[in-house]
Design a protein that fits this description.
homodimer, about 160 residues, mainly alpha, two-stranded antiparallel ribbon, 6 helices, about 5% strand, elongated, DNA-binding
DNA sequence: CCCATATAGTACTAAACTAGTCCTAGATTA
DNA sequence: TAATCTAGGACTAGTTTAGTACTATATGGG
């Protein structure tokens, strides 16, 4: 039903790999080898993640990539936004669209709210949890505590 | 970020229109005219909705379509399933896929859970709410009561 | 100074999917 | 039996996605 693109999925795999060794500087080739993803694809995605400030990069010999901030501070929503942009569930849910049936459309607002709800849920999921590193501490993760993922509260 | 196809969106528009007059038998042409959607598209979608048992049809003169059950008993999840199938957020979240990086993939399970969470939220939204007909009674809708949309409870 | 190793950015191609159209067949009723 | 409706499938054009290739730029070591 709902889908994220393969590339976005790959990006989470890449970021999860990096999250597992936060101190290590990875080259694109290393990540490709260790995740079994194609090298050019990994490279392309890392560039994009860099542009969106999810990873830091250093060029040249001994260069590579590092997470821009701790995995606990990177959310699923940020990753999706970085790769797929602020696209919405439906076209008319995006900012400046004007679909031609707008006047007779009863549904638009409802989808927007569903959309917002899903966004919120994705904002509560961190890379730490996506990477399966949430630790099992006293503080259960959004994914583990049964569920929100969505928070109660005013829309 | 997340997207449903235009056709799915159209389908909700169609169903919402029908929900507004539950007693009335609509022809495909009427719905097209009243929603400003293209007639062949409406026809195609209604056929599909019929196959998935969301609407009843009668052929012949004075034939047409009716909702198969009250709008309150049709959920957003059912509509999405009818049109887009049980596709999942990622490929590996679907039933019988085996992606080649499975062994080194840390992320799969997490996406599956996110996926499930979103499904649940969609199951709580009825066509009545999508159509903006939820009435404003004493019982606030899933969309209006601030939010779940996701229910607390074990995953 | 020059070369090897990295990332940065852009352009391009092939494949897959989506949206939309058209045509033929079957059912119902006046 | 003719008119009106749905059923089903085939087909086409357009868009999006995934993947590749190429050039430019930065860094550090011999």
């Amino acid at each position: 039903m709902l889908r994220i693109s393969k590339l976005t999925d790959y990006a989470t795999v890449i970021l999860a790999r990096m999250a597992a060794e936060p101190e290590r500087r990875f080259t694109a080739g290393q990540i490709a080898g260790e995740t079994h993803l194609a090298a050019p694809t990994v490279s392309k995605l890392l560039k994009q993640l860099h542009r969106r400030a999810l990873v830091n990069s250093t060029r040249g010999l001994h260069g590579g990539y590092l997470l821009a901030r701790p995995a606990a501070q990177i959310t699923a929503a940020q990753i999706l936004d970085a790769l797929e942009g602020p696209v919405a569930l439906t076209e008319c849910a995006s900012s400046e669209s004007h679909c031609c049936i707008e006047s007779s459309c009863l549904v638009g607002r409802a989808w927007q709210r569903v959309n917002l709800a899903i966004r919120r849920s994705l904002q509560e999921i961190t890379l730490l949890e996506l990477a399966g590193l949430s630790g099992g501490g006293a503080q259960p993760s959004a994914l583990d505590r049964g569920f929100p993922v969505l928070k109660r509260g005013p829309l």
